[in-house]
Design a protein that fits this description.
Chain A has 476 residues and is an alpha+beta fold. Helix content of chain A is 70%, strand content 9%. At the A-B interface, helix 10, helix 11 and helix 12 of A face helix 1 and helix 5 of B.
């Protein structure tokens, strides 16, 4: 692309130069338009280069930043000093010589900065500045640039004291020498960039095209000579086009990055969709497996209960049958907790209040087998617990209910057992209460040992009821 | 005391089915038999015209308890179908709802629970 642009400039030069001396249309606003477009593109490019410098922190980029700010400022000074650009046949600063001196300074300044940048890159191609040094360097560079421009403006205002560059509407010999020098500097800059930096950096290569366009414009200006000659107007258009080369390069980069970004986003969205589908599939498989496991657990618990029942039917001794009934109740308690776990699908988020509410009537059914006509009431607050605590809690409630039920004598009028469960201040309290007068019971029995071990598993402690009532209260 | 209510037990776990049959008979129900597959359940329901079917969802062979219940109802029979299942996940419950069941009892269950469900199902308007 860079080579094609250079070839295009060469062809335009060869084809256009023979017509450079021909008089062109008189467009009085051409200088104002040229300066305005140049100012805008140079300032925009300077800021884009500044952004690039903040990212890459290469010292040669500071020189390019300064060169573009310099060019933008010189475009303004040139506009103010050019006769007839803003006021008919007059300037806003200096006299007729000021514009020429400013033009010379401008066309010498840009290639000088370019050559300096190229040599800096050739000398230390891999140098990346420290963040603080880079920041200081760019501040100093821009400050010196605008100070230099201010100095040039002051000199331009005092142009009558300087040697004349234009006399009787024609360039003087000094102007021609300086013009050739600036053109040579531009071509030298192109050569240096092509020799080294342009091969390593696209940005530098396109900056070479900018210099080449300026050199071509210089040649057209020299050959065109007269104001509004074809060459004179072409030179201004050439400077403006040359100034916009790097700006165009940044626009192209932006478009390319947008394309890459769009492609990356599409790939990312496709990846996310694929991964989401994969995860959904895995969750579906996990749910199916979990449902199967819970189903098997509950079915097997029912098988176990059925076998206990078959055994009980064949037992003559009442005490042995009672032991099997207790085992049956324990199996049922585990089953209720597991069913709740299956419904919530979360092993650490089981509503034990709902477990107790469901367990109550089931225990009442089993207690009814003993024909003791015991009624269970449940008041349980919704409380979330993990499965590894919910299972011992379900078993504990069953044991506490059985323990209290066994102490109720046939003659006791109060045959209701109240189960309450609540959580206050981080402490959970389970109470199984009957108002009947009762004996303290055998604290060393197997049932009490089981209760003690379950309380230990929950990390709690038991407080015994007072007075005549039969109650068992556990805090954990 | 005989209730005069005829019950078909559809359950592929033999031990559960046998215990259930004993409990039902002890409670005075007439047990028509035990079916372990959906096809057998449909066949026995057609032959015995039960008042109540205690239906497990997962069965041996092709088709499950819901399939069997739907086929039985499609043939114009009107037994009260009570599902006795170890599955309570939403998908299983949604499938059960297809048949507008007379009751659902979750395993492990005490016989009193099952009997309460039978009584509720056979109540007028139940």
């Amino acid at each position: 692309m860079v080579k094609a642009a250079l070839w295009l400039l060469a062809v335009l030069t060869i084809c256009g130069l023979p017509f450079a001396r021909l008089p062109g249309p008189e467009v009085p606003g051409v200088t104002a338009a040229f300066c305005a477009s140049l100012f805008i593109t140079e300032v925009a490019t300077a800021f884009l280069l500044l952004v690039r410098f903040r990212v890459e922190r290469r010292p040669w980029l500071v020189l390019l930043v300064c060169a573009y700010f310099f060019s933008a400022a010189m475009a303004v000074l040139y506009l103010l000093a050019f006769p007839g650009a803003l006021r008919p046949s007059r300037t806003l600063i200096g006299d007729g010589q000021a514009a020429s001196w400013l033009f010379v300074a401008w066309t010498l300044g840009m290639p000088s900065a370019a050559i300096s940048a190229a040599f800096l890159e050739v000398r230390r191609p891999d140098l990346v500045l420290d963040r603080k040094i880079a920041s200081r360097m760019v501040r100093v560079g821009i400050g010196l640039t605008f100070a230099g421009v201010a100095l040039l403006a002051a000199i331009a205002v005092r142009a009558p004291a300087l040697p004349a560059l234009v006399a009787e509407g024609r360039w003087t010999g000094l102007f021609k020498v300086l013009h050739v020098a600036s053109t040579a500097a531009m071509l030298l800059g192109v050569a240096v960039i092509a020799w080294g930096p342009g091969k390593r950096s696209d940005l530098f290569a396109w900056f070479g095209v900018t210099l080449m366009a300026m050199a071509v414009a210089n040649i057209f200006a020299a050959v065109g000579g007269e104001r509004y000659a074809f060459g004179w107007t072409a030179a201004r258009i050439g400077y403006a086009l040359g100034a916009s080369v790097l700006f165009g390069f940044f626009l192209w980069l932006f478009a390319k990055q947008q394309r890459l970004l769009a492609n990356a986003r599409e790939r990312l969205e496709a990846d996310v969709a694929a991964r989401t589908a994969e995860l959904r599939h895995m969750i579906g498989e996990r749910d199916a497996l979990l449902a199967e496991v819970y189903h098997r657990v509950n079915n097997n618990l029912q098988v176990l209960r059925s076998m206990l029942q078959l055994e009980r039917r064949n037992l003559a001794a009442g005490c042995e049958a009672a032991a099997l009934v207790r085992m049956d109740r324990r199996t049922l308690s585990i089953g209720v907790v597991h069913r709740r776990a299956m419904q919530t699908r979360l092993a650490d988020d089981i509503d034990v209040g709902a477990v107790i509410e469901e367990l109550g009537p089931k225990l009442q059914d089993l207690l009814a087998l003993d024909s003791r006509d015991i009624r269970l009431e449940v008041r349980a607050a919704a409380t979330r617990m993990k499965l590894d605590l919910a299972v011992p809690l379900g078993l504990l409630i069953q044991e506490l209910v059985a323990s209290v039920a066994e102490r109720i004598r046939p003659s006791d009028p109060d045959r209701t057992i109240l189960i309450t469960f609540e959580e206050v201040g981080g402490i959970r309290r389970i109470a199984v209460v009957n108002g009947a007068r009762t004996d303290p019971g055998d604290t060393a029995s197997l049932d009490n040992l089981i209760i003690a071990s379950l309380i230990g598993q929950l990390g709690g402690s038991e407080e015994f009821g007072s007075g005549n009532s039969c109650s068992r209260v556990v805090n954990f | 005391m005989k209730t005069g209510i005829r019950v078909l037990v559809v359950e592929d776990e033999f031990v559960i089915a046998m215990t259930l049959k004993d409990d039902l008979e002890d409670a005075g129900y007439e047990v028509l038999g035990i079916a372990g597959t959906a096809d057998k359940a449909v066949q026995m329901a057609g032959a015995g015209s039960p008042d109540v079917i205690l239906m497990d969802i997962r069965l041996n062979g092709t088709g499950d308890g819901v399939d069997a219940a739907l086929r039985i109802h499609d043939r114009g029979m009107k037994p009260a179908v009570i599902f006795v299942t170890g599955s309570s996940e939403p998908q299983a419950l949604a499938r059960i709802e297809k048949d507008h069941p007379a009751g659902v009892v979750f395993k492990p269950a005490a016989f009193n629970e099952i009997e309460r469900a039978i009584r509720a199902a056979l109540q007028p308007g139940g």
